[in-house]
Design a protein that fits this description.
Strand content: 5-15%
Radius of gyration: 38 Å
Number of helices: 40
Shape: flat
Strand order of the largest sheet: 9-8-5-10-11
Mean pLDDT: 77
Length: about 1150
């Protein structure tokens, strides 16, 4: 009989290994440092000793004494913890580990290959009796692989502990600086945080390391509330209610990752990173059992209870008592995973019960919330999310502090198997805020885990956990490296492609978004109020009533014929008496049938159908039930065909020829039944159309296509048969197919907008996490206490530097990563005393990274030496001038158009300029500004305007609000209010006398213009500057500026600021340039900066020749170089 539990010898063996591994760490670090940067292991180093006096008697002996640390120092790992007979190359073990991450555990294959290779080279492996050994390497290699992994994880843990300590030190230092050196600034930050709807915080480092895109943020509290029904038009509708939570995760279980009970158990040797401990899972189960024994809480679901009951019956996962595996054969029956929306495994739970019980999902979510800040909100995607949500609400499976921060949704692929009323609430494509998150990451994770099924099923129980845990870690590392690729792909293939298709669809319909949104709200309200199909009892008894009614109708017809024949013949008193008796019997039978129909309570069950003919009601209810059945069958077939298509196309694991053919035959056998059901339903539709009367105001069901390919794209498949007469006309969303198509396109646009915003947040999180992590590495490299692992820290630094290249996206430009890199070095130097501790305040100038502007020329080389030389030359030239000459040198080309009432400000001297706060001006954008034929970018405009604002040193009470170039793009893209507020709040525009708004037009060609808003003048004014003086351009832009002004006014008021009253009809708009000033295609940005310079000096316009503009450009470059120099 095979041993199940480990015996004493196994316990001693594992104990010896556990005691040996820590002692090998120094030797392993020495070896890894020696081989860093080269391939292959170093040879044995022989040490020779000689007698100092030379009088000793020489005696030579050959002794081979290999200690464990000596083996490891020379690149060999012992196959046994005591008296090893075999050692394995560490390089081979490293290669095997890398191979394991991409394939499966293949100890037997590697051992067999090594034996074959040695035999072929003339080295047969024999025992003491000289007999060949059947399997000489398998056991030794298996031990070496398992315990070398334990040794390799020790230095990794040392590096992580060092980074954790450095991050804590950096955070503490920043806290001290914010509370001691700048109390006023800290007070202002606290005030600003209080105003905002989001709360500052951070996730645990464990989650940040697993997915920096999801958990690298610093502000939490995004809500799930709906703001659609606020009475706003579509143009005024914000995305505040479409946030969809801070984090999106998915849960699902697989029962393919089972473990044979006969495989036995091994002693403990590994603490898993991802598995939730069994005692925590069991504690969640005990909590659920105790909660269900209490009376259910009052809960009003948006979805009818009958619909949720049907969903629960449709999915095996909702049946906790259903056994999905053989309970006696398997001791571990499966796995449940919690993954983020980027398919990163967050936590795993080992399933040891026959069914998929709710305790596993609850335990995983409990674990997640332990590592989230108190304000963080979560959207959890689960194939039976509707059922779990009902359990949570009824029985309080989570504390109220978690329930209010947790939203459930169904995964996209499984959503279509739910009732339509359930989909209206839980389908992520129909629910606001969830973007393009689809909740199917667990399916892709199980596909990657599939290669381990054969290995883990027959491994020891704890070894199975070790293999699964290490494989999840390897998968996460690969996914983390490709997060930038994921964001770029989702942006291009998801957001942009779907936005284009939906926009074209809406443009072809000629229906406004406001009308479509009203129709969608009306559809949701109506369909969520509908009851599901009639009970089986009602249908059967209704059939009986109709059969009796048909028989009575036949009897009545016979009576009429009998009476006619009697009247035609001789009158006989007895005959008339019989006819009268039959009529009385018929009347009594009719009364009984009507009583039986009344007992069915059809008016009570369906009061909407009161007064309609009985046969019409019967056909209508049968059509309703049949369509629900058709939908279930059709969606099941769609899923199966998709699975076959993905397997054939390489997206999923191949099924194999036999299994593929069997699946295809099974689908083919089920197709005729589905087609017959559709034909029967279409027959019901024809009957209803024949019996229908217009005054009933009851929409009729539409026939379904019999071809499955066409049926798949038919939007009416998912809608139930309508059984509620309309009090007025039939609603457009039900009657007009173009309205339904428009609603689908509108919802797609909404989801794409939400997804674009979430992608932007994730790209920011990656950049932010990169900066923090690199700062910790730089600090650790400078601390002597971590000198032992300095080479590992250098490797970590190189990995991060390569990582930021892979993480660049159109949403986060390269110079932002570069600034994070430079900032990390400055932080480490400041904390270690390498430089003066005077803080440098960086001005964050928001920008939109994208393709180079037309006409832009970039320099091939951006060497630091060349940049420094140019800057010093410019600085020397400026310093050689007198103070009175600086004004003439820098910006004397601004020509007055209209003299203002305010006086001209004196220019500050060069020393004052050098004392101003430094700010970032990216090298590529400096090249654009320097080159005369290059068009200026967003950063050139934003940073140039900031330089001008500092140069003129305008008092605070007269300083304008210079808004970023990003603002108009956000406004035109219908971005949410939080994004607009983050972009504008630092300017305190509500306190400024006028606003300067640079505008980047993309059509008909890229072009820079400028709007100036005077909200405090009487009347209120909008001035517009266009170097081309195009009337159509400024009239179109002024309308957008006008709407933007009112939006900013409302946002500031919502954040508690006192704002000036805005008049609706008293605005005056006018152009600042009435004749074209520009003749080329690249100088528009420079003209905008010249206009800003004139406005800052108090003038109402600018007048320059193009030659003077070139001089202005050169002097603008000098000013920027001067302000970006460090003292």
């Amino acid at each position: 009989m095979r041993r199940i539990q480990p015996d004493d010898d196994s316990q001693k063996l594992y104990g010896s290994w556990l005691a040996l591994i820590p002692s090998l760490v120094p030797a392993y670090l020495g070896y890894m440092q020696a081989v860093q940067g080269r391939m292959g292991q170093s040879g044995f180093k022989q040490t020779e000793h000689s007698c100092p006096s030379g009088k000793c008697i020489v005696k030579e002996s050959t002794i081979l004494c290999l200690y464990f640390d000596f083996l490891v120092q020379n690149g060999l790992f012992p196959a046994s913890p005591s008296a090893p007979r075999m050692a394995i190359s560490i390089d081979l073990l490293d290669f095997y580990s890398a191979l394991f991450e991409r394939s499966a555990d293949a100890i037997t294959a590697l051992a067999g290959a090594l034996k074959t290779m040695y035999v072929r080279r003339g080295f047969p492996i024999l025992n003491e009796q000289g007999e060949p050994i059947q399997d000489p390497f398998r056991r030794g290699i298996g031990h070496a692989v398992q315990w070398y992994d334990q040794l390799r994880s020790r230095p990794e843990l040392m590096v992580e502990n060092a980074l954790d300590e450095c991050l804590e030190f950096i955070y503490s230092a920043n806290q001290v600086c914010s509370t001691t050196t700048s109390p006023d600034a800290n007070k202002e930050t606290t005030k600003e945080t209080t105003r905002s709807s989001l709360i500052s915080g951070s996730c645990s480092r464990l989650l940040q390391k697993r997915c920096a895109a999801c958990f690298g943020g610093v502000r939490f509290g995004r809500t799930y509330s709906r703001h659609v029904s606020c009475g706003c038009t579509d143009s005024e509708l914000t995305l505040r209610g479409r946030d969809g939570g801070d984090v999106h995760v998915a849960l699902d279980a697989t029962f393919s990752q089972r473990h044979n009970a006969s495989a036995g158990e091994s002693p403990w040797f590994y603490e898993p990173k991802y598995f939730v401990p069994k005692d925590e899972v069991d504690a969640a189960g005990v909590r659920i059992t105790a909660a269900r024994k209490k009376p259910a809480r009052s809960y009003e679901s948006q979805v009818p209870e009958a619909a949720l009951d049907e969903c629960e019956k449709s999915y095996d996962a909702a049946d906790e008592k259903k056994e999905k595996t053989h309970g006696k054969k398997f001791d571990d029956t499966g796995l449940m995973a919690l993954v983020c929306r980027h398919d990163v495994v967050l936590f795993l739970a080992n399933i040891d019960t026959p069914g998929e019980q709710q305790k596993y999902a609850v335990a995983l979510l409990d674990k997640l919330f332990e590592h989230l800040p108190d304000a963080a909100t979560v959207a959890a995607f689960y194939d039976i999310g509707c059922v779990l949500d009902r359990s949570v609400q009824l029985y309080g499976l989570f504390p109220d502090s978690i329930v209010k921060r947790l939203l459930f949704a169904t995964s996209v692929m499984h959503a279509y198997g739910h009732q339509w009323a359930c989909q209206l609430v839980y389908n992520p494509r129909l629910r606001e805020g969830l973007g393009l998150s689809e909740g199917e990451g667990t399916e892709r994770v199980w596909s990657k885990f599939r290669k381990l099924i054969g290995v883990t099923r027959s491994s020891a129980r704890k070894r199975r956990i070790w293999l699964l845990d290490r494989h999840a870690d390897a998968m996460n590392r690969a996914v983390r490296e490709d997060l930038g690729i994921w964001i770029r792909g989702r942006l291009k293939n998801g957001v942009e492609a779907r936005t284009l298709a939906a926009t074209q669809e809406l443009a072809s319909l000629d229906i406004g978004k406001d009308e479509l949104r009203k129709q969608w709200e009306a559809q949701r309200t109506a369909q969520l109020s509908l009851r599901k199909h009639a009970p089986a009892r009602l249908r059967k008894e209704l059939d009986s009533v109709l059969n009796l009614q048909a028989e009575l109708t036949t009897v009545e017809t016979s009576l009429v014929r009998l009476q006619s024949s009697i009247e035609a013949g001789d009158e006989h008193p007895i005959a008339h008496e019989y006819v009268a008796s039959l009529k009385r019997s018929h009347a009594r039978a009719v009364q009984k049938v009507e009583g039986l129909y009344a007992s069915l309570n059809v008016p009570q069950e369906f009061p909407e159908l009161k007064g309609l003919p009985l046969n019409f009601v019967q056909v209508l209810l049968m059509a309703r039930d049949l369509k629900i059945n058709i939908r279930k069958r059709a969606i099941g077939s769609f899923f199966e065909w998709d699975k076959l298509s993905r397997a054939a196309g390489g997206r999923d694991q191949p099924l194999g020829t036999k299994l593929h053919q069997q699946t295809q035959k099974a689908i083919t056998r089920r197709t005729p039944a589905l087609t017959a059901a559709i034909r029967k339903f279409n027959g019901y539709c024809d009957q209803l159309a024949t019996m229908h009367q217009a005054e009933w105001n009851l929409p009729l069901p539409q026939p379904l296509p019999t071809e499955l390919a066409i049926l798949r794209d038919d939007s009416s498949l998912l809608a139930d048969v309508w059984i509620t007469p309309s009090p007025t006309a039939v609603p457009r969303w039900l009657q007009d197919s173009t309205v339904r198509n428009g609603i689908r396109a509108m919802l797609t646009l909404d989801r794409c907008l939400e997804e674009r915003r979430r992608l932007g947040d994730e790209a920011d999180n990656l950049c932010r996490w990169y900066g923090r992590e690199l700062a910790a590495v730089e600090l650790a490299l400078r601390l002597p206490k971590f000198s032992v692992i300095a080479f590992l820290l250098l490797q970590k630094k190189e990995e991060l530097l390569l990582l930021q290249m892979r993480w660049r996206t159109p949403l986060v430009s390269a110079h932002r990563f570069q600034s994070r890199t430079e900032e990390a070095v400055r932080i480490a130097d400041r904390l270690t005393g390498a430089i003066a501790a005077a803080p440098i305040k960086w001005v964050c100038v928001p920008s939109e990274d994208g393709a180079p502007e037309p006409g832009a020329q970039t320099s091939e080389g951006n060497d630091a030496d060349e940049e420094v030389v140019i800057a010093h030359d410019t600085l020397d030239e400026l310093l050689s001038l007198d103070e009175s000459d600086i004004e003439d040198y820098l910006l004397d080309s601004v020509v007055i158009v209209e003299s203002p009432s305010s006086p001209r400000h004196d220019f500050p001297d060069v020393e004052m300029i050098q004392r101003t706060l430094m700010f970032i001006f990216p090298p590529n954008d400096l090249d654009r500004l320097r080159q005369p034929q290059a068009m200026l970018s967003d950063d050139c405009i934003n940073s140039g305007a900031e330089a001008l604002l500092r140069y003129y040193a305008i008092p605070i009470n007269r300083r304008p609000a210079i808004l970023s170039t990003r603002l108009m793009s956000l406004h035109r893209a219908d971005a949410d209010d939080d994004s607009v507020w983050r972009d504008t709040s630092r300017t305190k525009y509500w306190e400024r006398h006028y606003w300067i708004v640079p505008i980047h037009r993309l059509s008909p060609a890229a072009h820079w213009t400028l709007a100036v808003v005077y909200p405090h003048k009487d009347p209120q004014q909008i001035a517009y500057f266009d170097s081309f003086a195009s009337q159509s351009t400024w009239e179109a832009d002024v309308k957008d500026v006008y709407k933007m002004v009112y939006r900013l006014h409302r946002i500031a008021e919502e954040h508690g600021h006192a704002v000036a009253d805005l008049e609706r009809d008293a605005w005056v708009t006018y152009p600042l340039a009435t004749r074209p000033l520009q003749t080329n295609a690249v100088d528009c940005g420079v003209w905008v900066l010249a206009c800003i310079a004139a406005l800052l000096q108090g003038y109402d316009g600018v007048g320059l020749t193009e030659q003077q503009l070139s001089e202005f450009r050169c002097r603008m470059t000098a000013l920027v170089l001067l302000m970006t120099m460090r003292a």
